[in-house]
Every structure is written in structure tokens, then in C-alpha cells.
Amino acid sequence: MPDVMLRTEGLTKGFTLHLQGGLRLAVLAGIDLTVRAGECVALTGPSGVGKTTLLRSLYGTCRADGGRILIRHRGALLDLAAAEPRAIVAGHPILLLDEPTAALDAANRATVLALINEAKARGAAIVTILHDAAALAVADRAFPMTALQDAA
Fold first, then answer.
1. Which of 10, 12, 100, 101 could make an S-S bridge to 66, C-beta 3.0–4.6 Å?
2. What domains are defined for the chain?
């Protein structure tokens, strides 16, 4: 699929709570997500379900425990989860936005949403976290997330 810019396959991520006896907390399990060129996908769901963890995994700042994170790189899909650090350079048409309209007034929110629409029109693949129902209109589809377990 040449228009696929970003894909996760079976992505898993958990955290070890060292100050709670090494308790292991699973946050993501079996996440399969595909984002195509020119598409905006909003990660939705209540706080604590793993939206930011997924976004950080896509950034590459939070290493996945398992699965694959494939990004389009020079015409091929490269597995970010298995790539060496700094193996991927900036400037690719993928935007990862964590609540880009949070705490903005109406005029600035409109500006940010217009910029997102412009990026989509240029063919950027976008994954964003949006809680504002009005801002969700910029998304082509939602990717609902649910908690794996209740927090201890």
C-alpha cells in the first residue's frame, strides 16, 4: 500500500513501577493502526488509556515492548521499533500532535485546525490526541482507545 505513511502492528507497551515492588503495568496491547497520506486520525478515549504512550511510542521517545511501528522512509516502510536510535531523520510528512488545541482561545484554535487541514492537503499523515469535540471535526476518523486494566 504505497499511501500508507504509518502503521503499527501488534504494538505493546508496559511500565514497571519500581517503587511498588516492580509491579508491571500493561498500557498498550495489540495496537493495530494504519494512517495514510493526507489522513488525520484522532486518538480518543478517557485519560489513562494510553493515548500519550502510543504517541510517544510513535515519536520514538518511548520504546515499544513488542510489535512493529512502520513509517514511510524513502519509499519503503521502516520499522521504527527495531531501528537504531537516530536512524531516522526529521522532515518526513508525518505529524504527531498531543492535544494541539488545548488551552487555546477560539482564534488560535481555528488557526491550528487550519494548519492541520493544510498539512492534510499536502499529504501529511497525522495522528493527534483531541478531547475537544469541535476540534475532532479536523479528523478523518477516530481511533478509540480503552483501558487494559484499572489503575492500581
1. 12
2. 4-15+27-144 (3.40.50.300)
